[in-house]
Amino acid sequence: MKLFHTSDWHLGRMLYARSLLEDQRAFLEGTFLPAVAREKPACVLLCGDVYDRQIAAPGAIQLFDETLARLLELGSRVCVISGNHDGARRLAVLKPVLRRSGAVFATQLEDALDPVLLEEDGVRVQLFPLPYFEVAEARQFLGEPELKNEGACMEALIRRMESLFEPGAAHILLAHCFAAGSTVSDSESGLFVGGSGGVPTQLFEAFDYAALGHLHAPQKAGNKARYSGSPLKYSVDEQHQKKGFTVVDWDGTRLTAEERPVTPLRDVRRLEKPFRELLEGGRACPVEDYVELVLTDREPILMAAQQLQPYYPNLLAVSNPWAVSGVAGQRARALQGQDQRTVFVSFCRDVCGFEPEEGDLELFDETLKEVWS
Description:
Blueprint: E1 2-6, E2 14-15, E3 18-19, H1 21-39, E4 43-47, H2 58-73, E5 77-81, H3 88-91, H4 95-101, E6 103-106, E7 116-120, E8 123-130, H5 135-142, H6 150-162, E9 170-176, E10 209-213, E11 219-221, E12 225-227, E13 244-250, E14 255-261, E15 268-273, H7 275-284, E16 290-295, H8 304-308, E17 315-319, H9 321-335, H10 340-352, H11 358-372
Parallel strand pairs: 1-4, 4-5, 5-6, 8-9, 9-10, 10-12, 15-16, 16-17
Antiparallel strand pairs: 1-13, 2-3, 7-8, 11-12, 13-14
């Protein structure tokens, strides 16, 4: 039995204020759906963060609606769990109806204890779809207020899942979480990566495979778990990551997982060169990729972005570390020894371009007090 493991589509994502919806459509219609049509997986495992925002943009909703309809037309079942970026209640619309059509949406903890059984040519797979959860939510659901962190909650939930294991079937967990020791990218907000050190990877040993979402770099998490990673690059620091999705095969006794690469409509990368080289290179061969240009010149370049933009139409940003470090160094020396409020006022004036009001200063003092405490 073949399964496609994917996650973190983040439909509606913006990169430096540029919409990636066209790139996401190109991935789905040009790569993913043709692969489904060609290889006919029994099920697509979509492990959270379907959307980039809890209130998704209309264009993102339309793209997912079209993709889901096409997957079902191709004869593949779909199992979707909500991620921390998804609005779980909104994603749950028409859940019972969709399940009868072959699309299972897990948006509440109780959904993980209602496993999905797949059967094909005498081979059986049990899916346990566990959506993203907060610790307080898990404590209440489990009736165990003493659970201290995400790892303890995950362990308690897995114990309940194990009691539902069917003999002779492969047991696959779908989860959206931070596995301890995993690699994080800039495109993942630090507010949402997970707390208390994340989930110990040994907890996944109960399963034949744990299909994870949440982190954007494709990577293993212990012996049994794997992040498929996001199908596209959502920050410049991901420029060297090999994006794609994972193909999982279960033959009744042995499970294998293989990464399937994706060629994006536009790549995301950073170029570090002198201004003149970037300008001449762009004139000779315009660059359609999303690029962040870093000037290595030891002198200021006037209107660099305006001069480069015609040859880098998807230019994200232009920076000159030498010029910035000089200005920052002067500012730092001027503020050396000053109190935090003075530094804050200077930041508002010099960087943000406004004079902070008394209400701003009171809020800053209150926030600073909370941080130190």
